[in-house]
Amino acid sequence: MTTMCGGFSPMLARVAQEAGFEAFFVAGSQMSGFLFGVPDTGVIGLRDIVDHARHIAARTDIPILLDADTGFGNAANVWFSVKEIVRTGVAALQIEDQEAPKK
Asked: Using CA atoms, how far apart are residues 29 and 15, in angstroms rounded to an integer?
């Protein structure tokens, strides 16, 4: 079993690592609030998530699980989103099982 906490910033991920957590979850709702001060209503886009995830992954040595929202569109968009997210260095991602835009 892996112990994981979650949050929204590179600093929190680093604190989690230093505290002994084995992984860190980057929550979309928290990222939306942290980056833009808005609720998780689909305002945050792929580029925002990719850039932020890259900063978090670069400053920790533990695996990062990234909330990738709905994958940002249709099947072709999801394919592109996954390829972009893989390049950030995160260990895993999750995609919601609902269509964009979210209800």
From this structure: 20
How many whole angstroms separate alpha carbon 44 and alpha carbon 14?
23
Q: Which residues pair with 25 in a beta bridge?
A: 6, 65
- What confidence tier does 56 reach under pLDDT thresholds 50, 70, 90? very high
- pTM here is 0.91
pLDDT in tens, 67-101: 999 999 899 999 999 999 999 999 999 998 876 66
Q: List, as one string, the DSSP characters of the chain.
A: ---EEEESSHHHHHHHHHTT-SEEEE-HHHHHHHHHS--SSS-S-HHHHHHHHHHHHHT-SS-EEEE-TT-SSSHHHHHHHHHHHHTTT-SEEE--SSPSSP-
* Residue 44, both tokens: 């945050």
Rounded to an integer, what distance in angstroms lies between the CA atom of residue 19 and that of residue 41? 32
Q: Dump pLDDT digits (tens) for 23-40.
A: 999 999 999 999 999 998
